[in-house]
Amino acid sequence: MSRGLTILLPTYNEVDALPKVVKALPLDALRAAGWEPRIVVADGRSTDGTQARATELGLELIVQGPAAGKGFGMREGFARFLAHHDDVLVMLDADSTYAPNEMLRLLQHLDQGEYDVVIGSRLRGDIQPGAMSRVNWIGNHILTWFAVALYRVFISDVCTGYWAFRRGAIQKMSLNSTEFEIEAEMYAACATEGLRMSEVPISYAPRIGESKLGSVADGVRILRKLLVRRMFPRPVNRV
User: Fold this and answer.
1) Predicted confidence (pLDDT) per residue in 100-133, tens digit
2) Minimal CA–CA distance to 145: which of 137, 154, 136?
3) Which pTM does this prediction carry?
4) Could you give the CA distance from residue 199 to residue 154 in angstroms, rounded to a whole number?
């Protein structure tokens, strides 16, 4: 029997990248491997026509409201997943930096190792020229080192935007992030709950469109989130 798979694509002003990402999704290969995929777009109130493009492509659309931000979008996407009957959720950013066909490797690793969560590691994989600035490369390594030192659970890329979760893992995660610190909080929640985590190397390409990530400000938010969740294993407030 086929297993249900939610493919979650967070978007904010990705009108040009979204069609390319959707076209590259390995839907036939997923079905051949026993998955029944559905595509969900969690949009952070885009102003460039992303929502209309998602509708044109026949995708299931979540429009965040009233608050915007990647953390809000991811949490709404997780809630929609839990309200559905699917078994596994794969999330990847919809800016064309991640290769959609590589989700097959994440899913295979999830099954073969009997893991709860598998991430795609950019820092162990192939970072294409122009995909990540030197500052961001250094910052990602520092934040990852800090995360592992705090939580004692190995991961090589705490800020990656490519994750695969079993249903039970999402049920156990308790999150309150609003912005780009969401991936770090997902890692912290998984580590705190004792979930079995693993990773596979992935490729990372230059994005289509303007980057939304501010290297210093967002790095501080990520660091603060790691510290707060270490001191308070459950979110103090849910916004």
Assistant:
1) 999 999 999 999 988 999 999 999 999 999 999 9
2) 154
3) 0.93
4) 10
* Band of pLDDT at residue 214, cut at 50, 70 and 90: low
Can you read off the two tokens belonging to residue 157?
A: 């890329």
Q: Are 41 and 62 in contact (CB under 8 A)?
A: yes
CA separation for the pair 70, 12 (Å, rounded)? 8
Distances in whole angstroms, Cα of residue 59 to Cα of each of 6, 19, 26, 71, 84: 12, 11, 15, 21, 15
Residue 78 CA to residue 76 CA, distance in Å, equals 5
CB 132 within 8 A of CB 116: no
The two tokens of residue 24 are 């590259």
Tell me the chain's radius of gyration from C-alpha atoms: 16
**Cis omega (within 30 of 0) for bond into 206:** no
- The pair of structure tokens assigned to 58 is 């026949």
> How far apart (Å, rounded) are the C-alpha atoms in residues 42 and 178?
13
Q: Which domains does the chain have, with CATH numbers?
A: 3-231 (3.90.550.10)
**From the CB of residue 223, how many other CB atoms can be counted at a distance below 10 Å?**
17
Residue 195, both tokens:
């979930």
- Residues sharing a CB contact under 8 Å with residue 72, sequence separation 6 or more, in sequence order: 44, 64, 178
CB 184 within 8 A of CB 219: no
Decide: 93 and 160 in contact? Cβ < 8 Å.
Answer: no
Handedness of CA 181, 73, 205, 129 (dihedral sign): negative
> Phi, psi (5° rounding) for residue 238?
-110, 110
